[in-house]
């Protein structure tokens, strides 16, 4: 781990600079160690692929914080419990499904089967509130970002960019290949929490029909399937 100075109130703990679930587990273990210790002066901790950024106030110095980091035993935090959220997706709303399937030499149904066959680790949230960058995509359905981004992608859209998949919580311009859409509200500023998942959790997709999409969209009491697993 390399500890880098960002500014007088932020430092970054950088592990091996690669996209790897094993490396990300180290990042999350360090984050959990900090949360367990409840270190005074910490304002915010943000995890990403291979980096943990720590924001702190003037009640703790840079040097003291670095020594605290070095003293933490992250090995004891490597085993953890994570949540798996099952997100319903109607792949009939896949704006780029046919194009992606042809690019991959598959049928749209084969793309759906492969996309829903595994769970995806949330490496980080970014780009917009609640946008999850999900790792673990089957390489056979990977496709580069679109050369010309769309001016607007509907909220709830599920897309693929290279070997990652993700979800658009809000309507937005974007260049991901859209293969479906979820009726679930992913971001709600009036909800606590506004985003129900976080880095380190997992997403599992479940294919639904247009009729099921409409029913879920209109059901204010709809509950997302969630379970806890050993990560």
TrEMBL record:
Pfam families: CT_C_D (PF02682). This is 5-oxoprolinase subunit PxpB. It is an enzyme of class 3 (hydrolase). Residues 1-197 form the Carboxyltransferase domain. Its EC number is 3.5.2.9. GO terms for molecular function: 5-oxoprolinase (ATP-hydrolyzing) activity; ATP binding. It comes from the Bacteria. Keywords: ATP-binding, Hydrolase, Membrane, Nucleotide-binding, Transmembrane, Transmembrane helix. InterPro entries: CT_C_D, Cyclophilin-like_dom_sf, PxpB.
